[in-house]
Design goal:
The protein is mainly beta. Helices cover 4% and strands 44% of the residues. It has helices spanning 12-15, 20-27, and strands at residues 2-7, 28-29, 38-43, 49-53, 60-61, 77-83, 88-92, 95-99, 104-107, 114-118, 127-133, 141-143, 149-153, 162-168, 179-185, 191-192, 197-198, 202-209, 217-223, 226-232, 236-240, 245-250, 255-262, 271-272. It has a 7-stranded mixed sheet, with no helix packed on it. The protein has a 7-stranded antiparallel sheet with strand order 2-21-18-23-15-14-13. The chain has a 4-stranded antiparallel sheet with strand order 5-10-7-8, with no helix packed on it. A hairpin with a 2-residue loop joins strand 19 (217-223) and strand 20 (226-232). The model has no long low-confidence stretch (mean pLDDT 96).
Length: 279
């Protein structure tokens, strides 16, 4: 079963007028990880799709959605997947890729058969999915967490000591425009992506996980001089427009998956905002 919804782009001038309910309705994605289902949210920012697949006793086959107007979901798209649940596999055109906890898979455009499976329905795989338009087919490739390019950033003194796992990114996987990775905060650290930044040449989506029970993350967005916030729970995602910062602070340490697409593949192409300039 596949369900999807669409989100239109919002200007920074419009967002200034949003109350909490409207802000969450436009940017929060809170329908992920439904057992036995595939769910997608189609954003008009760079035509980015965010979703999940949670197969139980039966496999789930990727189906196209009406908004794509194509026979197959990946006819003109590429896809990135990171498993945040139990062991499972993704079958692409008859080839099975085993994905453990926090392993990633890139699937190039033009693949018509994609099937999601869990090894154990009592501890199902939970496949977090990002997809972006693609006009060249690149090979499908698995990237385990151990194979990620790891960056150690921040300090305990500034409460943002973290490991950035670059997974679906240039130098590891060749893609058209999709990039994905995972940032794990060290115990005692709560701030992610601080100092904050914007990158006008691409949009981004954050997916929060490993949030302990009864804890939460406050995600900050908006223009640097006109910020807003959205409270996030485990396994929720949030859309970040190109004009918006994307940062957060939790009541505990946690992990988040970042995915982005846009005009270029330069990971360092960003405009950093001074912490003291944020308002």
């Amino acid at each position: 079963m596949t369900n999807y919804s669409s989100r239109y782009a919002s200007s920074p001038q419009a967002v200034k007028q949003y109350d909490t309910t409207q802000l969450r309705a436009e940017f929060l994605i809170d329908n992920l990880m439904k057992e036995g289902e595939i769910t997608f949210t189609y954003s008009h920012y760079d035509r980015y799709i965010t979703g999940s697949a949670v197969p139980m006793t039966s496999p789930i086959t990727l189906e196209t959605i009406d908004v794509l107007k194509m026979p197959n979901f990946l006819d003109r798209r590429e896809m990135g997947i990171i498993n945040v649940g139990g062991n499972g596999s993704v079958v692409v055109e008859g080839t099975s890729y085993e994905l453990g906890f926090k392993d990633a898979l890139y699937i190039g455009s033009g693949n018509s058969e994609v099937i999601f499976k869990s090894d154990d329905a009592k501890n199902p795989a939970k496949f977090y999915i990002n997809s972006a338009p693609a006009h060249v087919n690149y090979p499908t490739k698995k990237v385990s967490l151990a194979e990620a390019n790891k960056l150690q950033l921040g300090t305990m003194e500034t409460a943002n000591h973290r490991t950035v796992n670059q997974m679906i990114i240039g130098g590891i996987v060749t893609t058209c425009q999709l990039q994905m990775g995972m940032t794990e905060l060290k115990p005692g650290s709560v701030w992610n992506t601080m100092p904050a930044h914007v990158h006008d040449r691409r949009m981004e989506v954050y997916f929060y996980l490993d949030i302990p029970e009864n804890q939460a993350v406050c995600h900050f967005m908006g223009e640097p001089q006109e910020t807003r916030h959205i409270w996030m729970n485990n396994h929720q995602a949030v859309i970040s427009p190109p004009w918006s910062i994307h940062s957060g602070a939790g009541t505990s340490n946690y992990t988040f998956i970042w995915g982005m697409a846009g005009e270029n593949l330069d990971y360092g192409d960003m405009d950093v905002c001074k912490i003291t300039d944020l308002k």
